[in-house]
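Lab meeting notes turned into a lecture example. A postdoc, R.K., suggested we walk through two folding results consecutively so the class can see how the record format repeats. The first protein's sequence and structure tokens come next.
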Amino acid sequence: MRRLIPVLVTAVLGLATAPPATADTRHAPSGTTVDCAKVKCIALTFDDGPGRYTAQLLDLLRRHHTKVTFFLVGQRVAKSGKIARRMAREGHQIGDHTFTHPHLTSLTDDQIRDELSRTQDAIHRATGRRPDIMRPPYGDTDDRVGAIATELGLSQILWNGSARDWELRDTKAITRKVLGLAKRDRVILMHDIWPETVAAMPKILTTLEKQGYHVVPVKSLLRGRQLLPGDTYPVGGWN
């Protein structure tokens, strides 16, 4: 009987300390491993950071095992490289959102090139990775902007649903707006620089999960297809 006691104690301790079998699979929307051809996906994208509320958003995303796409402003990355590094380390997709957030179509070719390339450099210095996607501020793009993006190895990522959080500035209204826009394969535009947006995210993520959505980076919506420099995604109307 004495010989059985250590075995029983070990077994009990093992049950007490072992993680639940479902702990890592309860929130399947990890983004990079989800097959969006088989499950319902939606991409949440965040512009204009890093900002003072971005770390709080990253904490929430980590708790939900969720990956998103961030479009970063170069001059902010230069000041907050640590946050950009954390985004990359935690598996989020990172894109170029210009250095000073101008209307690109109002600039000369050299100015457009400078805005995009300086941001690529800033992100590379912070994360060790050079972005291959960009989002033009205000969605302000044309053939000339597209040609320069192509030259710099960048695809353009737009959106087909906007939270309009910059206008609403109300947590409940932002939550209703985003959930009302939710459809399979949509790319939703948001901003992590607004505290109301970050405050809305717990309800948004929980509700989307209950509705069967997997929140993923934009690249996961492509189902393995690679965007080429100069490509624009998604194609279609904006809301």
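The second example is placed directly after the first for contrast:
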Amino acid sequence: MDDTEVAEAAGLTTGAVARRLGVSPTTLRSWDRRYGLGPASRSQGRHRRWSPRDVAMVEEMCRLAAAGVAPAEAARVARSTHGEGAASRTAPAVGSAGPPPAQPPGTSVRRGGAGGGLPLGDVRQECRGLARAAVRLDAPELENRLLDAVRQHGLTTAWEEVMVPTLRAVGRKWESSGDRYVEVEHLLSWQISTALRRAPLVLPRPVDATGTEPVVLACAPGEQHSLPLEALEAALAEQGVPTRMLGAAVPVEALLACVRRTGPVAVVLWAQTRSTASGPLARHVAGLQWGSAGARRRPFVLPAGPGWDRRAAGDFPRCGGLRDAVRTLSGLYGAEGPARPAGRG
């Protein structure tokens, strides 16, 4: 036997099993304590040693959990399939029900529990499967789950009820764990950004808005948090609203040049923090005018993001979230074309 076979015959340590499965040793100990998914034997020094059957049992738990099956049900199926005595059980008699099969995840909200050790709280079931895939750094699984959420629920609901709760859970875990989970947050953010850009491939094709004046989307100068703005861009595209996305930390002159060249219906200025929200910039953009004398036009300006408090936003309208922003901006487009605030003079 080679070294690997010798080690497996003697039993694997919890750390070795955790590395093999891509979960933390704490998760394995929690599964043992809560669901009885621990090793069947221990060494003379009371160290936990995992046999091939023990490993197969927790592998089944991981597979079912990644599919969104509730943890208690996933553990029951894993024990019945690979647990002690499973091999010696006979098939159920004809007519008997036998153990019920694990059900695939639905679209209903499941209460309690968390995914992959993340503090999720009361969330949709899809969040738990997404969190487990994120902790395992399973990019293909994240991509599939994110696009499935967009396809099933639409962009706005997928963002507000699946993506954001999972992102917040990762952020809380990151803050409470020092430098750990940074890679999880980065991968999840990137995969969400990728899913938002690919959303048009899985959503019904909207009415062609070619030639219609767009909505310009820009982060305030110095603002690097662009992911919520990407969600707004995707949600507006779902409604057939044309956009021009400028992304993070847009310099003032670049923003003004874009507004003058595109003549947008509206300009969204995103600020995550109060330090990047600029009332003077919003007023300057709102004052830009173009067009022939007597019919001058100017953009509708919508400050968005938690950085815009009442003082910074001033008299500008404020939106309470993605759904509110989409409703406000899409409402600017009427049956006869986009409605615009009239310029002065």
